[in-house]
Amino acid sequence: MVIQARDRVLTHARRLFSEQGAVPAGIVAAPILRSWRRCIEHGFDMGGTRRQEPMTQVELRELQQRHAYLRHMCQPAIALLRQEARGTGGLVILADDKGLVLESAGATDFASRASQVALMPGAPWDEHAAGTNAIGTALVERRAIAVHGAEHFFTPNRILACAAMPITDPQGRTIGVLDLSGDARCDHRYAMGLVGLAVAQVERRMFAEAYADCLLMGLHADPAWLDTPREGVLAFRDGVLVAANRQALGLLGMGRAAIGVFLFEEVFAAQIDEMLSGADRVQTHTGVTLHVRSQCPAAEGRRTSVRRPVEPLPVEVSVATRPVASHHVSYDAAMLDKLARAVHVSDAGVSVLLQGETGVGKEVFAQQIHGRGRRRAGPFIAVNCAALPESLIESELFGYEEGAFTGARKQGSKGLLRQAHGGTLFLDEIGDMPLALQARLLRVLQTREVCPLGGGRAVTVDFALICATHRALSVDEPQAIVRPDLYFRIAEYSVVLSPLRDRADLRDVVCAIWAGFPGAPHLPKDIEDILMAYAWPGNYRQLVSVLRTLWILGSQAERVRMDMLPAELLRASTTATTSPEAGSTDSASLLRGLTIAAMRRALEQHDGNVSRAARELGVHRSTFYRRLGALTASESVLMRR
Which residue in 4, 256, 462, 542 has its CB near the most CB atoms, within 10 A? Predict the structure, then answer.
């Protein structure tokens, strides 16, 4: 009765859609309605029939041979679903990523009925061929889809009740669809759950086979689900995340852009050696504890040697050299996401423009893009366009032939653009490049050929391009510092790097850098709090310099004292803690860089709006929130007075 009532409602909805092009909300599921609209755009008629495009047996065999790997991986899952299909009078269907049916198995009687609407091996079931249906619509929507009876676009297909789910390989590519179909007059409420478990089994099997040489980690919040199709699975090769199934990405709240980019320590608050040693739990950086089972690499000798292919994040690097690191600059989740996206677009040949204040680590970020990308084995050539004399920048960039000008080397010079071949060219402060040279650079980027000074022949170059600037590169003003045509070539993808003062986890950043100094003494909390309260106009570069100085002086004295802080930090701390309402002279714990009176007054003036209050005080909203969160109980009372 329920099925019949639902069918009557859908029949009414189909009539409204055919006549008016719309359906009242809540009657038809959103994915089904989207599919109906796509079918109308294809020029289909609900009362019509699907295209009949049967394959010959020879063509079908060739199709099955092309997808031999997919069929092999799916056989155990299909065998289990076949038993269910026979018991309920249905069929299990395997289709490729184009919606072509590779094979079917199940109840013979229903297979005969299904063949009347071409649900059989060799038939296309993409939306272009069959309208709304579970196989084709799941491919378009890239998610599990159930299509029951009259939800099918074409009327003849109403005899089917189908549940389908895309099969995704470890790299996130859809390689096929698994479907369980039956008679629409029967109840198939468990079909989608069965298909989901079967697809998870297939994907898990592919994962284990493809990454047998990696550290494999099974994850779940509930230990009972480990070693089942519902567990999340990750693969790390040389400390880099190289694959993850959909369950793992969901558990960790990550996108597929993280694959191939994130390091183990950026996914978990742990060291990879702990997994190699058999740890059964792991904590994420968000504080979530997951149960884990680890399978060490199959290759002999890989168990005890895990090498990080990406150099640690350096503070400063020299021009035209690959980075040699001394200290880490930690990235929060938002910045790691930006980095992952930048790596993928750079690998695809898209130019990246980095923007941010002086000292935010633009060159460090560029090195990380290079070090995690497919060109990491090539050179990283960094050029500070503001540091090179205008008289030399052309010859340094483009190179020159012997005798090209007075003082030229006898053997000539390749130039930095040619040195970057096979790697990455980083042009810092691109806005300081002379306009005349910008035209030459644009031509190189368009032709991918460099002509050295002195009339030499053009030389082909292949490099990833990353540019950086600390100021806005407006192309709308008459006095623009960058040619518009060059700007749109170098800024195909832009990344804005936030200043240090906007980091909500500033304390963690300080602790991470301090821990990188060998033998560093304890950093007292009052000094740590002063560091938290400072605005850091010089960003990471200034912070590291201050911490390095404290380390040197503190190591000699065997402790870090307040008088070791730079004068500007002491002045800022004193200014921020001289409020008569504060009732305390403790510069660290009392105000954290803002007086209670000033914070309270700003909040009162703006009716409790933190964003406006922070703007009036000249600080970022996240900084204001951090100060609020750091108040003691007594300070909170003062805030409410």
Answer: 542
Domain-located, residue 310: no
Examine the fold and report which residue of 146, 172, 202 is the final residue of a domain before the chain moves on: 202
Tell me if 482 sits within 8 A of 438, measured CB to CB.
yes
CA distance linking residue 38 with residue 48, whole number of Å: 15
Quick one: pLDDT at residue 497? 93
List the structure tokens of 556.
Answer: 């000699």
Residue 362 inside a domain? The answer is yes
Q: CA of 229: how far to CAs of 1, 91, 133, 159, in Å?
A: 35, 22, 26, 31
DSSP string, 386-408: TTS-HHHHHHHHH-B-TTSSTT-
User: Where are the alpha helices (H) located in 304-405, listed in sequence order?
Assistant: 333-347, 362-372, 390-398
Angle at 301 between CA 295 and CA 304, to 5 degrees: 70
- Is residue 473's pLDDT more than 60? yes
Which two structure tokens, joined as six digits, stand for 10? 């859908």
285 and 243 together in one domain = yes
Residues 6+ positions from 626 with CB-CB distance below 8 Å: 504, 506, 532, 592
- Percent of the chain exceeding pLDDT 90 equals 42
5 part of a folded domain: no
Q: Are 99 and 136 in contact (CB under 8 A)?
A: yes
Which residue, 527, 355, 501, is CA-closest to 428?
Answer: 355
Sign of CA dihedral 503, 506, 512, 513: positive
Spatial neighbors of 326 by CB under 8 A, at least 6 apart, are: 312, 314, 315, 516
Instruction: Tell me the three state secondary structure of residue 601.
Output: helix
Phi, psi of 89 (to 5 degrees): 70, 40
Q: What is the DSSP letter of 95?
A: E
Give me the chain's average pLDDT, please: 82
Terminal Cα-to-Cα distance of the chain (whole angstroms): 66
Which residue range forms the structural domain that includes residue 285?
A: 211-295
How does DSSP classify residue 124? B
Going by C-alpha positions, the residue among 174, 155, 152 that lies closest to residue 163 is 152
Give the chain's radius of gyration (CA, Å).
31
What integer pLDDT is reported at residue 32 of this predicted model?
94
Tens digits of residue pLDDT in 507-566: 888 988 898 888 889 999 889 889 998 999 999 999 999 999 999 999 888 889 888 888
Cα dihedral: 524, 530, 531, 536 (round 10):
-170
